[in-house]
Amino acid sequence: xxxxxxxxxxxxxxxxxxxxxxxxxxxxxxxxDDTTPDRWDADGEFDGDEGxxxxxxxxxxxxxxxxxxxxxxxxHAWDKHSLEYxxxxxxxxxxxxxxxxxNNPTENKDLxxxxxxxxxxxxxxxxxxxxxxxxxxxxxxxxxGKNYYDGLQ
Length: 153
Prior knowledge:
Blueprint: H1 67-81, H2 91-103, E1 107-111, E2 115-120, E3 125-129, E4 137-140, H3 146-151
Antiparallel strand pairs: 1-2, 2-3, 3-4
Helix pairs in contact: 1-2
């Protein structure tokens, strides 16, 4: 399965956080906005969310998603079908959608060769899992919608 990269470095330091023994300059820079909340807590830990999640509208973090959904979304499915999903900005958001279809399908069925198909009627998405495929399967919006799903054998 492809490695999911976290763009946030592990060694974040607050901007301008002084090293030990450095004097603090507590004067506000010209034009500083006093209403901007401090994103560093009292212990110097980064609090970028400030109590809010970056994941919205039911999206899950990659750690909460099934390995199958992540594998499918980070395989060819996002590269090939991302234009069918303008509502998603990246493969992780798409993986959340794939996971949702797999866990709450309108319909699902077993296919030959240990494959499974899931129909997400609300979004018009078909997800096909295939353990023999290096990408784990695929997910897309077929042009003929549910008829495509119904014809899967």
